[in-house]
Amino acid sequence: MDDHVETSNAVRTGLVLGFRHRWNFLPKLTFDHGDYDNPSGEEVPFLNENFLNFVRHVLICHQNATIDKFVLKMDLNLRYSKTRRPSRRPSVIPEYFSRWKRVTSEVDSWIHFVMRKL
Residue 47: is it exposed, middle or buried by C-beta count within 10 angstroms (0-12/13-18/19+)? Predict the structure, then answer.
């Protein structure tokens, strides 16, 4: 399988019988959060759980002894305006920090995984 194929495409290709487990041995992994839609369409901090679950699944199943290249593209809307009136959305602040904590925890675990395989 071509090393330059984006990881999500390689996994989809792996569904074809002849390539079933070859994606587990890719030496170059590329993940792009921009490939996942924002289901809510809101401006509040957005996090696509499907993306986080996909990256975690790929890393758990990865069987190559090394990773030559790891690319992670994330452009998340994690802005919070202090001018927002709390009475309109009292849950925005806790929701923001909950999502931020989830993202940082996930990305931290991914980086640790990749560092062990360099």
Answer: buried
Element counts in the chain: helices (H) and strands (E): 3, 2
Rounded-to-integer distance, Cα 45 and Cα 5, Å: 30
Can you give the pLDDT at residue 81?
Answer: 43
- The pTM for the full model equals 0.73
CB 51 within 8 A of CB 30: no
* Amino acid, single-letter form, for residue 2: D
- Cα separation, 77 vs 28, in Å, equals 27
Whole-Å CA distances, 106 to 25, 49, 115? 22, 11, 14
3-state DSSP call for residue 75? coil
